[in-house]
Hints:
Mean pLDDT: 90
Number of domains: 2
Largest sheet: 6 strands, mixed
CATH class of the largest domain: Alpha Beta
Helix content: 40-55%
Strand order of the largest sheet: 3-4-2-1-5-6
Order of helices and strands: HEHEHEEHEHEH
Shape: elongated
Strand content: 15-25%
CATH architecture of the largest domain: 3-Layer(aba) Sandwich
CATH topology of the largest domain: Rossmann fold
Radius of gyration: 20 Å
Amino acid sequence: MVGTKGTRRRYAAGAVALVIALFCSLTAKLFVWPATDPVTGAHADAVVVMGGPGPRWDLALELAREHIAPVILLSVASVRWDCPAQSVGGVEVQCFRPDPFSTQGEARYAAAEARRRGWHSLILVSTVPQSTRARLRVKRCFGGSVRVVTAPLSAGSWAYNVMYEWAALAKALVWQRSC
């Protein structure tokens, strides 16, 4: 009997270790080192700056200086107070407040604007942890080419953002499966 109990404990410990290793691997793949796309020399119809933390606007300005797209769609908490100049170096800046105020709302708005303007390609600016979910949400709403570039996060905000993204991705995969 002692051998059987010890064997069960070893199997249970092995199963727990396997679940932890799988969770850590998925976290790394989805939220720490997700797929991103090179944009050097690329051209898109618009750059979509997703709302949230990190220097996303700075990255969008850098893309504007490289003339990667003629339009920047900037998700803001309030169009009245948070919208920068209407043009940056010849690039049109259009601010919007998504409805719902979420990545899903941003994806819906960007896709609707793309249909209205006849766009076929978008570059998303998000942070590293959000990029997997942002790509998923936008691709559900927009049939064209989607590239993702990421702005860095401060070291102190990583843990919160990764936990948030696990919950938000589960929501997107289980409860909100459409555009």
